[in-house]
Amino acid sequence: MNKLYIGNVSAEASEEDLESIFKQWKIPHSGPFLVKTGYAFVDCPDEKAAMRAIDVLSGKVELHGKVLEVEHSVPKRQRSCKLQIRNIPPHMQWEVLDGMLAQYGAVETCEQVNTDTETAVVNVRYAVRDHARLAMEKLNGSMMENYALKVSYIPDETAAPEGPPSGGRRGFNARGPPRAGSPGLGARPKVQSDIPLRVLVPTQFVGAIIGKEGATIRNITKQTHSKIDIHRKENAGAAEKPITIHSTPDGCSNACRTIMDIMQKEAVDTKFTEEIPLKILAHNNFVGRLIGKEGRNLKKIEQDTGTKITISPLQDLTLYNPERTITIKGSIEACSRAEEEVMKKIRESYESDMAAMNLQSNLIPGLNLNALGLFPSGAPGMGPSMANVPPPGAHGGSYGGQPESETVHLFIPALAVGAIIGKQGQHIKQLSHFAGASIKIAPAEGMDAKQRMVIIVGPPEAQFKAQCRIFGKLKEENFFGPKEEVKLEAHIKVPSFAAGRVIGKGGKTVNELQNLTCAEVVVPRDQTPDENDQVIVKISGHFFACQLAQRKIQEILAQVRRQQHQQQQQPKTPSGSQPPTPRRK
Q1: pLDDT tens string 143-191
Q2: Of 334, 426, 482, 513, which residue is most buried, by most CB within 10 angstroms?
Q3: pTM for this prediction
Q4: CB 103 within 8 A of CB 131
């Protein structure tokens, strides 16, 4: 990415003119200027010099009455999925940027580029060429907080030749793996790989954390290989300000420890006598699993680290603020250890949810998880792009042709039936239409029945959508307590001869299923198969756990069906000879 294209060049301009401008602005170049009519090319010795030329000259320097436009020179065949976005407002939050980029399609990577400018620069890779083109068209020149964004293609040397791309151009061979951003250059981890650490700090300590002319925060960023956003302008006049740290788990913890040390020193210097607890902000979706059943997980962290931990009430949440405040009290050393344990639990919950989401997107092509409202849009650390999925064609092809219809029996509190049906049946009709599934409530099994069965019939995507909305509705309508996660039981029927495959030898498969999905999976013993020779598998857990377990069991059943089909296709064995016994995997 060291070759530059210089556009809007005057017909009077010469190689010497351009040479002079580069010399004046102290921009090195490693070859002669190739001047054409209206434009020119030049090579720079490295990417840093190329970026400096773009930052300093593009749209700012005139030559013979024309303002030069400078950008990376990208051959047409390499104008694919990769863009560079420049002139991003310096205080813009990652979450806002993620949301903006996600409007145009699924973002695979978004990495910050180290520059000397006040404004930020990122390299973005979209999953699909057309999405990158749309983002380029819509974002280039658009205003963001009084800054005009500048978007250009950068060479996509890794685009795989997946047949003719759109536009009829021939594919080209990949030349090695995509280059990841170097942590030393301040690149944050990929959006999909981690969530940031968010902490609240007293407003009076923000100046000390930033330091004179930003020296302290720059030093923390450099030492911990992290990107740190201090949201000074949020909640004007508030007693506390949020800080977002993007890095590896170790990088986040090291940056957090350093910030606590700085606050402690500043408190001593300013004779501030109150205790300064560590306050972590976490998305409500993960807090239930952090607390654990009857508070066991939280109690263990407190005991192991010698801290006292409290969590803000659910009542403090709003649609625009889906975060809970986790307050940790203790010594700096103890708080630091507790932060590691708390964030480890939150990341595990996040990764479990993302694994489930990715599995849905792989098994259910084209499923738009973003449209389901699983995470509130723009939630810190949970921007919409996190809910974007690979495009159709990126799945593993588990379903050939039209996806098969499935039947799931989902058990809900009997008192919630009215909320699911809605006034004059409007809600259940809308839900059925939205999901593309048949949804019916089975009659109560007795006067005192505490649960009712919802019968959902439809393909995998319809199951995902319908169940997602039902879980969400129960939470919205407060059928579960303020500190409870919505956990439901689902039943799916499997052929009796396949039940052994779900259980596995000595219960190995079902145990692996439970460990992988965090759901409880039970195949009740001594079941009498129904009239269709089917038995029930019971699955209990929160939404993503339940979904992942359902999909994994359907994978096992699909494998059984394929093996059956293959056996039926084999030529019949001549009489008198014994067929080979198939080995169980």
Answers
A1: 877 788 888 888 776 554 444 433 333 333 333 333 333 332 333 333 3
A2: 513
A3: 0.40
A4: no
